[in-house]
Every structure is written in structure tokens, then in C-alpha cells.
Amino acid sequence: MKKEFVQDLLDHVWQLQKNTWGEGYTSGIHNNWIRAARNCGQKIEIERKNGHPYIHFFRPDGSFRGTLDPWVLPTTTRSSSQACASKVKTRYFLERANVPTPETQDYREGEAQKAYEDFFQSATSRQAVVKAHNLSQGIGVYLNVTPSNFVETFDSCIELQKERKRSPKVLVQEMLDGFELRCTVVEGELVDVIARIPAYVIGTGRHSIEELAALKNESRLADRFLARRKLNLEEYNTKAKMLAEGISPTFAPEEGELIILSSISNIAYGGETAIVTDLVSDSIRSIAERAVAAIPGLTTGGVDVMVNSLDSDSPKVIEVNSFPHAYISIYPTYGNPTNPLDLYLQRWFLVDDFERGDRNEFTLEEKEFLEKYYAFIKQKLGLVGGLFVK
């Protein structure tokens, strides 16, 4: 990620409120879903299988409404979840709906040379994103991969997944300039946009990068969300980034100088987050909703979009997640928090009640949402046609 992109993003983000999360913080996606379910005002039952919660919901009349599986939302079809898990399938549906997306292909163990030849045959000056297929939160993601380190990086992705007892597969994607936004779409409507800022420090003219990172980590101890997500100068991508920039942990940047410590915009690597929903262009908002509409059977999802500015008119969708880790929206570093989990349950219940005829009266806000929801369904039918499964 180029410094000018991050600096431009930070100039906007620093104008937002700074948050510190203490009391009331709940860790982990599943714990936050349990919290949302317990606060939804309706009967639930929690069943645990293999250490994961299955949350069963019931209507006021006692009838069964649906189950929130550990990785599948009640309104999400299994086929759409599988489509999102395969980035190649995701790309197929996005391209079919004329949603801009980077070149993507996936490979299995032993196919490093084939992947190398496929990707670099047109130009050896290209750079790739190499991702471990079955990991999350930025783990196993390598950026700016060149011909000289491609095979080594590919093999590292395979080993990383095998160490975690996952079926290894590697995703190879075209490297794009810009920064990444996570757009959360809940039942057809964009509800928030999160900017994920890579780990960085700001020079004082006196302290080394190592000292600046230690000071920043110390300040994070006051925030329960960031306390365990520290800047780590020994992490692979951080070391690679500093090597590429020709700097070391002992380098002392000038006062006010921005030093980016990772090419990966993820809180797991010491990054930060900001709610920037009100700052992004209509193009970004609409492409996120269109991306979810493009996947058959999907109405709620997290859409990762690559842009070169918050007012970009040419965003590209790099990933669609059918089970977004939307609890990150509840605890942003900057900006007004949102709660997509609570909102999802409210909207699921509302549509279910409306379609069953269980309610006759609706608030103005509910009527407006239902109108938007069915407009989204109409758009979806136009994009996926006979592939649509609700």
C-alpha cells in the first residue's frame, strides 16, 4: 500500500472521534452473536456442537424461526456460502453481474510452478497477492509477491494451512493499488463502511521505529479491543515491508513522518479501523450492494472493496464474505460505531413476519426498509435470473 493512499485516508480518519473500548466489550464473532441473540427480545436456545454455538430462534407464538449456524446466517443459502468460499466462483458471479473485480485463480498443493506460469506469463513485472484459502483475519496473506519469491510464498501458504489442519489451497490474485474498505450489507442494504488501516507509526524525530511501536503498544493496553492486537516488528509481512522500504527497527523517522509497517490492512497485524460510511462515494456504496445481489442466495454479506480514495468512482470488489465478522463495526478505533448483528436480527424477523402475515402494522422506518428490501430482491433477480434462490 502506497504511503500517499494511507496518508490521505488518515487525514480523513483523524477528523473522526477516537474510541477506547473498555466496559461492555465482548470478544469474538460468536460471543457477539450470542450477545445480540440474548438482546433480541425473542425466545432463543443455544446448542453447542464441537465447541461452536448453534443459536435457535423462535417466533412469539412458539414456532421455530430458524438457526444461526457458526458460519451460516439463517437467510443465507448453503450454495451461496460455498460460492463465497470459492473466490473463483465469486469472481464468476461478479463478472456475470458486471461488477469490477481483479483477476483471481486458486491452486492446490504441488501447483506452485503452474500458478507461477499462469500469473507471470503475460508480464514478469506484475505483482501478486498470494492468500492461504482457509484462513482469516489477514493470516496467510502475502502482498507484493514477485517472481523471485512467488514459489517460496506459495509453499508457505500451503504449510501454514497444514499446520492448522486445514485442507490447503492457495489463492493468487492481481495486486491492485489503493486501500481496502469493508462494506457490510445487511439484507440488501449497505449499513456501514469500514476503513482498515495498516499498522503504522508517526515519527517524533527522536524515537526509533522499535521505540515508537513499543509506545503505541503501551497505549493500546487501555483499549480492550486493541490490547491483544499489537504491532509486531518480527511478523513476516512487517519485516518484508521494512525490507522493501530499506528501513530497520532502529531507524528514527523525522517528526510527523508516516511509517507504514505492513502491507496488510488488518487489526490482527496491529492495524486500526474507522467507520467511514458517510465519507465514501455513491459508487462505493452501490458496488457493495450490487456485489451481494450478484451472488445467488445471498442477501447479507461483507464486501471487500479496493479503492484509491474515499470518493473513488472506480472501486473493485476483491472478496465477498457470506458470514462477515461484522462485530468489528461495533468496536471501531475511529468513528461512530454500528451494530450490524442487532440490525440483521431485526430485519430477518421483520421480513419473516411480513411474509408470513404475522403482523399487520409497521412503523414508517420498517415500511421504508421493506420497500428497499424488495427493490434489492428485484435487482437480484435481474442479475442472477434463474440462479436466484431465496
Describe it.
With 390 residues, the chain is α+β, with helices and mostly antiparallel strands. Among the domains are: 29-74, no CATH class; 103-175, 2-Layer Sandwich (Dna Ligase, domain 1), CATH 3.30.1490; 199-270, no CATH class. It contains eleven helices and 14 strands. The protein has a five-stranded antiparallel β-sheet with strand order 12-9-8-13-14. A hairpin with a 5-residue loop joins strand 2 and strand 3. Helix 9 (282-294) packs across helix 11 (364-384). The longest helix has 21 residues, at 364-384. The radius of gyration is 22 Å and the shape is globular.
Q: How widely separated are the two ends?
A: 38 Å
Order of helices and strands: HHEEEHHEHEEHEEEEHHEEHEEHH
- CATH C-level class of the domain at 103-175 is Alpha Beta
Average pLDDT value?
A: 92
Q: From the alpha-carbon coordinates, what is the Rg to the nearest angstrom? A: 22 Å
Q: So, CATH architecture of the domain at 103-175?
A: 2-Layer Sandwich
By helix and strand content, what is the structural category?
alpha+beta
Q: What does the overall shape look like?
A: globular
Please sum up the structure shown.
Its cofactor is Mn(2+). This protein is an alpha+beta fold and 390 residues long.
Furnish the topology, listing elements before pairings.
Elements: H1 3-13, H2 29-38, E1 44-49, E2 52-58, E3 64-68, H3 78-85, H4 87-96, E4 104-108, H5 112-120, E5 128-132, E6 141-145, H6 150-163, E7 169-174, E8 179-186, E9 189-197, E10 200-202, H7 209-220, H8 236-245, E11 258-260, E12 272-275, H9 282-294, E13 301-307, E14 316-321, H10 340-356, H11 364-384
Antiparallel strand pairs: 1-2, 2-3, 4-7, 5-6, 5-7, 8-9, 8-13, 9-12, 10-11, 13-14
Helix pairs in contact: 9-11
